[in-house]
Amino acid sequence: xxxxxxxxxxxxxxxxxxxxxxxxxxxxxxxxxxxxxxxxxxxxxxxxxxxxxxxxxxxxxxxxxxxxxxxxxxxxxxxxxxx
Length: 83
What we know:
The chain starts with 14 loop residues before the first helix and ends with a strand. By secondary structure, the protein is an alpha/beta fold. Helix content is 23%, strand content 14%. The longest helix is centred in the C-terminal third of the chain and has 10 residues, at 67-76. The protein contains 2 helices and 3 strands; from the N terminus they run H-E-E-H-E.
């Protein structure tokens, strides 16, 4: 059963560890999962996993990739799950 989930908590509470363990489950290993991250923390070796990283603008003020921009791009990729 596919239910939305929100993982929240203070620093050091195990949010990333829980998410990594969920990503290694057999069910998710068959789905197209796209993660939007500020820093690469999730890196499962699943064939359908894609990680999109935000980045700041360069010294000329160009090249910025915000989370909102990456979200729009991720939705175009038809993910089964979005992190």
